[in-house]
Structures are given as structure tokens and as C-alpha cells.
Design a protein that fits this description.
By secondary structure, this protein is of the alpha+beta class. It has helices spanning 16-34, 54-57, 62-68, 76-88, 129-133, 146-149, 170-175, 178-184, and strands spanning 42-44, 91-100, 103-114, 156-160, 163-168.
């Protein structure tokens, strides 16, 4: 189920609370309205629903926004989304401008998925995939570069025209080099 929230732009991280409260009410209503017909399993929160586009619209200083407006993953905002996911038994897919500990005074647009069965969601940014995958985190990476994903993936799915054409483990994929030629032309 996709949400279409009203978003308030932020200048400070504390301002995100208003958007989180709105998302909680919107999720409760949407799940309640949808569940009688079809159980909701995924809640998709659109880009910038947590922070808005203020940093771009107002041309805010990147370093200042990284320090004052970007979130940490994991952090208090993802923990709040984790509680929401658990309360409704759904996965939550969202995006946020997030800091990375190795890149001081920078933020990145990070997409993440929260498992509803995890009490304290433990998500990672693109740079932390390998570390976080060890902790039982479900990460969905869509990419055409399979060789780079072998080290961090437990399972691979090759999609062709919207259908799963092949699925298997990294070891199974490595044992069949023709897969790359057949589905990716390389």
C-alpha cells in the first residue's frame, strides 16, 4: 500500500517528529480501510516524506543540513518506523537523507526496508550492506552488477519482463556462468 502524505519541510532533525506522527495516523487509517479486502503487507512511504525538500528548495548548506537535518540509520526515526511496522505487521519501505559515520558532514539519499518482526530495526546504508546483512537484516538491492552483490547476498532473483526468471543462492549462480550471458548479456 502506498501512502501519499502531507509533508512538512524540516530544518532540524527534531522537526521530523511532525511528519512521523502524520505517517502513523495515515498508516493506521490506510491499513484499517484496506485490510478487510486485502491484508496489507507492505507500506511504501514516498521520497522525502520524513524530511521534505527544504534543503533543496531553500538551498540550505549541505554541511549544516547533514549535521542538523539528516538522520542516522539506525536511529530514533527508524526505530519509530520499526514500532509502526511491528504494530501493524507490515514491512515499511521508505527513504531518508541519512548520514554515514565514514563521511563526515555529508548525507546520502538512502532507501531502506524495515521488517515488522524485528523489535529494533537494524538497517544499513549502501555502504553498510555487508556489515548489516550479518545481523539478520533484509535488504533489497536492485542492480545489474551481480558479481558485486555475491559477497553480500543470501539469495538472488533475476527478473525478466516482470517475472522471476531464476532464483538461487550466490553459490548456485556462480556454478552457472551462463546465467549472466542469458539474462544480462555479459
Amino acid at each position: 500500500m502506498g501512502l501519499i502524505p502531507t509533508v512538512r519541510g524540516i530544518r532540524r532533525r527534531a522537526d521530523i517528529r511532525v511528519n512521523l506522527e502524520h505517517l502513523k495516523h495515515l498508516t493506521k487509517t490506510a491499513v484499517w480501510l484496506s485490510s478487510p479486502d486485502l491484508p496489507v503487507r507492505l507500506v511504501a512511504i514516498p521520497e522525502e516524506a520524513l524530511q521534505g525538500f527544504n534543503n533543496e528548495v531553500l538551498d540550505l548548506d549541505h554541511v549544516q543540513f547533514a549535521r542538523e537535518g539528516a538522520i542516522d540509520i539506525p536511529g530514533e526515526e527508524t526505530a519509530e518506523l520499526g514500532r509502526l511496522a511491528r504494530d501493524y505487521g507490515v514491512y515499511i519501505m521508505a527513504q531518508a537523507k541519512a548520514r554515514h559515520p565514514d563521511w563526515k558532514d555529508r548525507f546520502f539519499n538512502v532507501g531502506f526496508i524495515i521488517n515488522f518482526y524485528m523489535l529494533a530495526p537494524n538497517m544499513g546504508t549502501y555502504y553498510l550492506f555487508a556489515e548489516k546483512a550479518e545481523g539478520g537484516l533484509a535488504i533489497l538491492v536492485i542492480d545489474k552488477y551481480l558479481d558485486e552483490l555475491v559477497a553480500i547476498g543470501d539469495r538472488h532473483y533475476l527478473i525478466e519482463r516482470g517475472q522471476v526468471a531464476w532464483t538461487g543462492t550466490p553459490r548456485e549462480r556462480a556454478a552457472d556462468p551462463a546465467l549472466g550471458h542469458r539474462y544480462l548479456g555479459g
